[in-house]
Amino acid sequence: MSEIPAGDADDRHDRFDRLRAEQPVFRDEANRTFILTRMADARAWLNDAAQWRDADRAEPGAYVHAFKPPDMNRPGDRNSGMGWMDEPDHSRVRGPIQLAMSRRVQALAPEVRGIVEAQLAELPAEGFDVLADYALPIPIAVMGRLLGVDTAEVARFRSLSEAALSVFDIGADADARRATKTTSDEIDDLLDEVMARRRAAPADDLISDLLAAQTAGKSLSDSEIRVNCMNLLLGGNVTTADLIATGVDLLLRHPAQLARLRASPALIGAAIEEILRFEPPTNGTQRVASGDVEIGGFPVRQGQVAAVMIAAANRDPTVFPDPHSFDIRRRGASHIAFGGGPHLCIGAALARLEARIAIQALLDRFPGLALADPHAPQRWRPNAAFHGLTSVLVRG
Ligand code: HEM
């Protein structure tokens, strides 16, 4: 049986705790992957800029090949996404995108507030699903606004985002893979259209920024702009929505923590960090060894993959006292929900901003917010790479 844990497994933390204590650098032979569960090993591995990210460099049979299937992009686009790039291309492509994003995200709070308010106005106090009716439309609208892509058809972007993420599900069947391919073709066409329009008439958006960087001499191809904008447009939607919905669920299941937050709204930043630590929306991330190395004393050969189990490292008892308790007053060590090193999530600041505004505004709007059925167990979506609830049903 594969040790790469499924997102829906209720007992995954028992397995993680056992692995961390007994086999912290565990070789999962079926998936040709080392599984890292200790925070110290995870951090060191992610921060090591010498290791590779590109799945094409992994040994045959490593599970990471399934995440980068050969036919998923247009032929010339295959290696254009920063998430799969190694140096020197990674810095060349990430640099201008990060610069444009950080400038725009800083100024985005009022826009996010407006989007959140509009979404709140739609919610019936007698009952709604925090995930589908509130959380999911928010990052879709925000990212559309930031990039300059019309995302008014929320349902379409939701299904596109979910199809795009299923590429990271090693359990996905052929139908799911075909749906993902159709999705990426559809978004490629949409982005080509937007790029052509912005080239003719620049607007106040991120796609125009990247086209301007290209004109100013930055080495950034059309394919690199298209693939990375697709990743921005779709990649952060489900993860950010999960952060918001899981966060609300956790707070409602921990009334003392909720009361603390209601009494001291300034704790919202700390609450978001604890939600990210406790139930990170991304289960893991990986690097390919660029040479023969040792991780935590275990030999790893060039081309072998080591995957960091984010959800496990975030509950390492040597770093977080009483790691299985949810406590928004934690101080000290930070989690690795956004990965680390040169590939640290480029959307982290944006996701934090959206979650802070969205969770706070929902609590303010509904002072008596409660789970529709407080006794119903949490149900996680089955996906090995992403971790989110199927729904969070509440009444206002
Ligand atoms: C709570 C929400 C999010 C979580 C938990 C999350 C998590 C992650 C993780 C774990 C990685 C891999 C980092 C590594 O390997 O070290 C990553 C990378 C990435 N994320 Fe996010 N992410 C979130 C939101 C977003 C958003 C909103 C965007 C887009 C605006 C985004 C875009 C990306 C991109 C493009 C990368 C690849 C970066 C690179 O390889 O240089 N993410 N994210």
Give a description of the structure.
This protein is of the alpha+beta class. It has one domain (12-191, 222-395): Cytochrome p450, CATH 1.10.630.10. The chain contains 15 helices and nine strands. The strands form three sheets. The protein has a four-stranded mixed β-sheet with strand order 1-2-7-4, sandwiched between helices. A three-stranded antiparallel β-sheet has the order 3-9-8. A two-stranded antiparallel ribbon has the order 5-6. Helix 8 packs across helix 11. The longest helix has 32 residues, at 222-253. The radius of gyration is 21 Å and the shape is globular. Protoporphyrin IX containing FE binds next to helix 11 and helix 15.
Provide key terms for this protein.
single chain, alpha+beta, four-stranded mixed sheet, 15 helices, globular, binds protoporphyrin IX containing FE
Number of DSSP E strands = 9
Cα separation of the termini: 43 Å
What is the oligomeric state here?
Answer: single chain
CATH architecture: Orthogonal Bundle
Indicate the proportion of strand residues.
5-15%
Give the ligands present. Answer: protoporphyrin IX containing FE
SSE succession = HEEHHHHEHHHHHHHHEEEEHHEE
CATH class: Mainly Alpha
Class of secondary structure makeup? alpha+beta
Helix content: 40-55%
Shape from CA axes?
A: globular
Count helical runs: 15
Sheet of most strands: 4 strands, mixed
CATH superfamily grouping: Cytochrome P450
Strand order of the largest sheet: 1-2-7-4
CATH topology: Cytochrome p450
Mean pLDDT: 91
In the predicted model, the low-confidence regions spanning at least 5 consecutive residues are: 1-9
Provide the domain count.
1
**Over the alpha carbons, how many angstroms does the gyration radius reach?**
21 Å
